[in-house]
Specification:
Radius of gyration: 27 Å
Number of helices: 19
Number of strands: 22
Distance between the termini: 15 Å
Helix content: 25-40%
Shape: globular
C-alpha cells in the first residue's frame, strides 16, 4: 500500500474509532437548522460494539496486531501537544479520556448574516471599523460527558498565550460566558443536555432555539431548494456534511485582488450554478461507504465543464488483467477548463483592453507552434495510474494518458519538454521517449539523475520509471485486443453497480498485495537515503510524516491487513443533477 492509501485509511479510522459505545437515536437533526445555514458537519456518535465488529476497517483498528500503529499515532499526538502548547503534553490516559467525547453527537457549521443589506448598498464601501460577520457555531450533546468536557475546556484556556477576558452575559434566556480575545469575542454556554459555542450573539440565539425545536417549519434548512436537492445524500451514516452555495449576487465582491475585479470574474464563472456539496460516511456491515456529490446546473458554461460526459469503458481498461493490484482512472475536460479560465480572465479586462489570457495564448502558440485550444484538444483528459506488482514497486507503477493525433502530440511533447528529451526512437507504430525527470546532488557532491520512459501510441501515452514496465503494459494492450475482458470478476461486478458512463473509476485488491515485502521496504533507510541524496538540511513536515509512517510499520505484523481488508472500489459520474461519487472499502 502506498503512503496516500495508508493515510486515507488511517484518517477514516481515527474518525470512527474513538471508543466502542452505543448511541441513542440522533437528537441533533441538521434538517431543522436555520435556513440561512451556509454549511455544517454532523457527527452522529461512535458506533456500537456490534457495528465495530462487523466492519472491516474498525475490526482492523481494534485488532491487537494493529497496536503498533495505534501507539505510533498516539505518540505523535502527544509530541504535537507538547510542541504546540505551553502546558505539559497530554498523557495517554488524558488523550483516551478526551477521545471518549466522540461517543456523543456534535454539529459544527456556519450561519450566514441575516442582515447583509447594509453591506450591499450599491457602490457602498464598508467602514474600516465594521466587524466582519463570523457565523461559526458548535453544538455538543454533553450527556454523561459534563466533567470531561469541563476538564478539556479548562486545559485549553489555560494553555493560551494571552489570557482571554471572560464575563457573564445572558443570551436567549440562558447564562453564557463571553470570551474576549484579540481576534474577537465568542460565546459559550452549557444548558441542559447541550453545550453551545458561537461567535455572534444572533447565531447563538438561533442555535439555542434550534436545539429547543422552537423554529417554525418555514424557517428550517430543510425548506431550502439546495437542501431538498441534496436530501438523498444526507440519510443515515455516522457523519454527514452539507455546503450551500448562495448566488454570487448575494455576496459583496466589489473589491480587487492583484488588479483583478472580483465581481465580474466570479460572475463569469457562474458560481450560482453550483447549488450544494453534500455527502455522508456510512458503515454498511463489512463496508465503509462514502457517498457525495457536487449538485447544480450542469449546462455548458458553468464550473461543471471541468468534468466531461464520461465513458462506459476507459481506453486504459485494456491494461487490466488478473494480476492488477490497483487501478485509478479519471477524466477531465481540458477544453472546458480552458474555456472557463479564458472567459473569466477576459471579464477582468476593461473595454478595449487585452486580458491576461491574450498574452498567454500568444506566448503558448509561439512555443507550441499551434493555438492553445488545438494543443489541449490533442489530449482526451483521461488520466490513469495502475499497478501490477504485488510488492507495490514504484518502478512498476504505470501511468496512461489518452491522446489523439499522435504526430501533433509528439510535436507538443518535444516543445514542452525541450532538452529533457534524452532520446527518441520509433518501433513500429510506437515512439519511445526517454525523459530526464530531475537531477540531484548529494551532500558529498555526487550527481544522479532520474528518468521517465514514455511510449506514444496512436491513442495513448504510457509512462513509467522503467522501460521494461512500459513494455509490459504495451504487451498487455496488444494481448487485450484478441481476448475478452480480463478484469477480475469482483471488479466487473462492482463496475456494474455504477452508471453506464463514468468520469472516474478506482479499484484496489488488498488480497493481492505482498504485505511482508511492502513492510520490508518501509523498514529500510529509504527516507534517510532520499534526504541525503537531495542534500536537504533539517527535517521538513513531509520528512516527519514519512518517519512517522515508517515508525508505525516497524513492529507491525503485516498480515493484519489482509486479515481484514479485501477490496475497495469507487466511481464518479456526471449527470443533469451534478457530479457524483460513490465508493467503499471492505
Amino acid at each position: 500500500m502506498d503512503r496516500h492509501a495508508f493515510k486515507t485509511i488511517l484518517s477514516i479510522l481515527l474518525v470512527l474509532a474513538a471508543v466502542p459505545a452505543a448511541l441513542a437515536q440522533s437528537r441533533l437533526d441538521p434538517a431543522t437548522l436555520p435556513k440561512s445555514t451556509s454549511f455544517y458537519f454532523a457527527w452522529h456518535g461512535t458506533p456500537s460494539d456490534a457495528t465495530r465488529k462487523a466492519n472491516s476497517l474498525l475490526a482492523l483498528w481494534d485488532d491487537p496486531d494493529f497496536r503498533p500503529v495505534r501507539a505510533a499515532l498516539v505518540e505523535g499526538m502527544l509530541e504535537n501537544s507538547a510542541a504546540s502548547r505551553k502546558t505539559s503534553a497530554l498523557t495517554l490516559e488524558e488523550l483516551s479520556e478526551y477521545a471518549s467525547l466522540l461517543d456523543n453527537e456534535f454539529l459544527a457549521g456556519h450561519i450566514g448574516n441575516p442582515h447583509p443589506a447594509a453591506a450591499k448598498t450599491a457602490g457602498a464601501t464598508p467602514a474600516p471599523t465594521s466587524k466582519p460577520w463570523n457565523g461559526l457555531f458548535f453544538v455538543y450533546d454533553r450527556t454523561g460527558k459534563e466533567a470531561t468536557l469541563a476538564k478539556l475546556l479548562l486545559r485549553t484556556r489555560s494553555s493560551e498565550k494571552d489570557v482571554p477576558k471572560i464575563s457573564s452575559v445572558t443570551i436567549a434566556g440562558i447564562s453564557a460566558l463571553k470570551v474576549e480575545r484579540k481576534t474577537g469575542a465568542s460565546y459559550w454556554a452549557e444548558d441542559g443536555r447541550y453545550a453551545f459555542g458561537a461567535s455572534e450573539p444572533l447565531v447563538f440565539e438561533q442555535i439555542v432555539g434550534w436545539t429547543k425545536h422552537s423554529m417554525t417549519e418555514a424557517d428550517r434548512l430543510a425548506q431550502t431548494p439546495a437542501y431538498r436537492e441534496a436530501s438523498d445524500l444526507l440519510k443515515g451514516g455516522v457523519a454527514e456534511f452539507f455546503v450551500h452555495f448562495p448566488s454570487v449576487r448575494e455576496t459583496t465582491w466589489d473589491s480587487s485582488t492583484w488588479g483583478f475585479r472580483l465581481r465580474p470574474l466570479l460572475q463569469s464563472l457562474r458560481l450560482e450554478a453550483v447549488h450544494a456539496i453534500a455527502g455522508h460516511l456510512a458503515l454498511e456491515g463489512a463496508r465503509t461507504r462514502i457517498q457525495g456529490a457536487i449538485l447544480g446546473d450542469t449546462s455548458a458554461g458553468t464550473l461543471f465543464d471541468i468534468w466531461d460526459e464520461g465513458t462506459s469503458k476507459p481506453s486504459s481498461w485494456q491494461f487490466i488483467n488478473p494480476n492488477t493490484v490497483f487501478y485509478q482512472e479519471s477524466r477531465i475536460n481540458l477544453l472546458g477548463i480552458y474555456g472557463l479560465i479564458k472567459h473569466a480572465l477576459q471579464s477582468t479586462a476593461g473595454a478595449g483592453q487585452k486580458s491576461p489570457m491574450d498574452f498567454i495564448e500568444t506566448a503558448a502558440e509561439t512555443r507550441l507552434g499551434m493555438p492553445l485550444p488545438t494543443a489541449f484538444g490533442l489530449f482526451t483528459g483521461e488520466v490513469t495510474s495502475l499497478q501490477t506488482s504485488p510488492t507495490l514497486d514504484p518502478a512498476k507503477q504505470v501511468y496512461v494518458l489518452g491522446i489523439q493525433k499522435k504526430a501533433e502530440t509528439l510535436k507538443v511533447l518535444r516543445s514542452v519538454l525541450g532538452e529533457r528529451v534524452v532520446s527518441e526512437r520509433a518501433e513500429g507504430d510506437t515512439t519511445f521517449l526517454k525523459i530526464s525527470a530531475s537531477g540531484t546532488t548529494s551532500a558529498a557532491g555526487t550527481a544522479s539523475w532520474s528518468y521517465y520512459h514514455l511510449a506514444v501510441t496512436n491513442n495513448l501515452i504510457v509512462a513509467a520509471g522503467r522501460l521494461d514496465s512500459v513494455r509490459e503494459a504495451l504487451a498487455l494492450q496488444k494481448g487485450a485486443a484478441d481476448n475478452e475482458d480480463l478484469a477480475p470478476p469482483v471488479w466487473l461486478a462492482s463496475r456494474a453497480q455504477y452508471p453506464s458512463k463514468v468520469t472516474g473509476l478506482n479499484f484496489m485488491d488488498f488480497q493481492k498485495i505482498d504485505w511482508s515485502t511492502v513492510k520490508a521496504r518501509w523498514n529500510t533507510d529509504e527516507v534517510r537515503k532520499t534526504r541525503a541524496t537531495t542534500g536537504s538540511n533539517g527535517k521538513t513536515s513531509m520528512d516527519e510524516h514519512a518517519d512517522a509512517f515508517s515508525k508505525a510499520m516497524k513492529d507491525l505484523d503485516p498480515q493484519v491487513f489482509p486479515r481484514h481488508l479485501h477490496f475497495s472500489t469507487g466511481a464518479g459520474w456526471k449527470d443533469m443533477r451534478g457530479v457524483h461519487f460513490d465508493g467503499w472499502i471492505e
